[in-house]
Amino acid sequence: MENIDPLRLPDEKLLSDPDEMEAFADELEHSEHSLPRQINVDPEGVEKGLAKLVLTVIELLRQLMEKQALHRIDAGRLTDEEIERLGETFMKLDARMEELKITFGLEGEELNLNLGPLGDLM
Fold first, then answer.
1. Directed axis angle between helix 43-74 and helix 80-103, to 10°?
2. Read out DSSP for 102-118?
3. DSSP conformation class of 10
4. How far apart, in whole angstroms, are the C-alpha atoms of residue 6 and residue 14?
């Protein structure tokens, strides 16, 4: 397999206009002055940030699973026993999530990430 130098790709292989790339490079140079020279890494902040990310993913998955379960219930594809088990599982997961939020000092609304123009995650 041939090694390809990405800096020497033909123009048709570029993902954007070369003028846009120059504008991006200029913007990057100007933004360098607004970025801090050092990153202050606080171990507690990192731990809380990681916990927030993990709990956000878990909450998103929980909501998706709950919606799927409701669709299956509405479609009549679950037995009463399965519905009971699902309800118990979701209650236990909710209780554990509350415990973890307390442990890491997080509020429920902190788990809702803002995705900019896409809006809120949940």
1. 160
2. HHTT--GGGGS-B-GGG
3. -
4. 9
